[in-house]
Amino acid sequence: MRNNTTRLDHVVLWVADPVAAAAFYETAVGLEPVRVAEFAEGTAAFPSVRVNEETIIDLAPRGFAEQMRMLPGSADSAGHPVNHVCLSLPAADFDALKSRLEEHGVPVSGIDHGLSGARGDATRSFYFRDLDGNVFEARHYDD
């Protein structure tokens, strides 16, 4: 593997209700909410949830798409299909996430073994959807 200092900073998901989405990610997925109060007060454009110290998921309201001006055609990205986002966790956190999702009534797929990813073949993985239908994979590797 190449020694590379590039990191994934953030992923932006279009959501119907950013506050509800942040609550889902906090309670069902176990991610730390960021700027939710500021969003509710109107001082932040959108809230986020923290995946780790280097990576967040931004929860952008779909109505915000019309304001997207960074690139011609950016507004058309609202609702653009993304196949899935993958979260890699330690084995105990993987098991805890699956249990927490099931406790919150979130359907999860069966367990897959050996799916290839950034660190090689995963020991176990499963899939679930968030409130807006975005698909997530959760996986862990043997360390």
TrEMBL record:
It comes from the Bacteria. Pfam families: Glyoxalase. Signal peptide: none annotated. InterPro entries: Glyas_Bleomycin-R_OHBP_Dase, Glyas_Fos-R_dOase_dom, GlyoxalaseI/FosfomycinResist, VOC_core. SUPFAM superfamilies: Glyoxalase/Bleomycin resistance protein/Dihydroxybiphenyl dioxygenase. Residues 7-141 form the VOC domain. This is VOC family protein. It comes from Streptomyces argyrophylli. The lineage of its organism: Bacteria, Bacillati, Actinomycetota, Actinomycetes, Kitasatosporales.
